[in-house]
Design brief:
4-stranded antiparallel beta sheet; 4 helices; single chain; mainly beta; 357 residues; 11% helix
């Protein structure tokens, strides 16, 4: 009887031993997340996002970022690589196919739609429908994960390379490794020159510029915070933490045009991830597992509004995540908020309402 039992034990242990001996795809470091800010005051849980209406749910999948033009037409960067427009009558049309994964969208002063494509780099779609590649590398480093952008009044395009090590297919590895692979880049389209203005960011994501054009905000998704980089004034060239200890993962950020900012948080903090962060060995081990065994984001809809002092002044929630969860971007236009999502169907729209600063 002992021999069969021993064989069974060995067979059970083999996968574990094999997993331990298998090289990890990451080199994790310890990170001790600070407690999240409480769900109280302007962050108190509500169900305001239950009023969200969904547009083009049969025509658009994974509109990670959205934008609106001067005619009120809505644009989405879809998961299949297409740039889709929703007309005033609700009809959709495909304007371009990037061949990659378009993420951030923004209009420049000449009517070009500037696109951050996770795999193709920084692109421009002309009013005539011509798709052009602007950048595929900066400072001798390939754009590994071109993510989001904002355009200053002087034409400078500020955009993020979320990670110089991991591409869009492997963003979870970037989170587990907990190293600062992200960067914020400035591109001057008039001189066709670009340079990194801020590096060592923890998954550099959404970008927004202040109303007075004196600073740029960049979301550091895997540190639950937003960093401010000064582009004008006495602090020009300096950076600082704008807001920290957010209750979720900040993704897209945009200026409301009223001196405030909208931040999309696709999900709330993950207790499993926060538990693992101080334990590099455990994270190195988890990184070897299939995606199905890695920490999963909880379905939750959440956007918050910040003032220019980095204070939360309003939040809109869908706590059950049963209407429009995993919101990755929010754009205010024409009295509405337009919402994007990484994997969901359609584009969300809800009345902007009023904010108290």
């Amino acid at each position: 009887m002992k021999k069969p039992i021993l064989v069974v034990l060995l067979l059970c242990l083999l996968p574990i031993v094999g997993l331990l001996l298998l090289p990890s795809p990451i080199d994790a470091i310890a990170y001790h997340p600070a407690p999240a800010m409480p769900w109280s005051g302007p962050l108190a849980v509500n169900r305001e996002l239950d009023a969200t209406t969904l547009l083009a749910i049969e025509d658009i999948l994974g509109a990670e970022d959205v934008d609106v033009d001067t005619q009120g037409r809505i644009y989405g960067a879809a998961a299949d690589g297409t740039i889709v427009r929703i007309g005033e009558n609700g009809a959709t049309e495909t304007l371009a196919q990037t061949g990659g994964r378009p993420l951030g969208l923004h209009w420049d002063a000449e009517g070009n739609l500037i696109i951050c494509d996770a795999f193709k780099g920084l692109l421009a779609l002309s009013p005539e429908g011509e798709l052009k590649t602007l950048l595929t590398e900066v400072d001798g480093i390939t754009l590994k994960f071109t993510d989001d952008l904002e355009i200053a009044e002087n034409g400078t395009i500020y955009f993020t390379d979320a990670s110089i090590k991991y591409d869009q297919h492997h963003y979870m590895l970037d989170m587990l490794e907990a190293r600062p692979w992200g960067r914020l880049i400035a591109y001057d389209p008039f001189t066709d020159s670009a340079h990194t203005v801020l590096d060592n960011l923890y998954f550099a994501n959404g970008v927004a510029i202040s109303k007075n054009q004196d600073f740029v905000l960049v979301n550091e998704t895997y540190r639950y915070r937003i960093t401010r980089y000064w582009i004008n004034g006495p602090k020009k060239g300096e950076s600082e933490i704008f807001i920290d200890s957010l209750p979720g993962f900040p993704d897209g950020i945009s200026s409301s045009g009223r001196g405030t900012f909208w931040v999309a948080l696709p999900t709330v903090r993950n207790p499993q991830a926060d538990f693992m962060h101080p334990l590099p060995f455990l994270k190195n081990l988890v990184a070897k597992l299939p995606d199905s065994a890695k920490p999963k984001p909880a379905p939750y809809g959440l956007i918050i509004e910040l003032n220019e002092d980095g204070k939360v002044i309003r939040s809109l929630h869908d706590p059950e995540g049963d209407n429009f969860p995993f919101i990755t971007s929010v754009q205010e236009a024409n009295g509405n908020l337009y919402l994007g999502t990484l994997n969901g169907k359609g584009i969300g729209v809800i009345a902007a309402g009023t904010s108290t600063q």
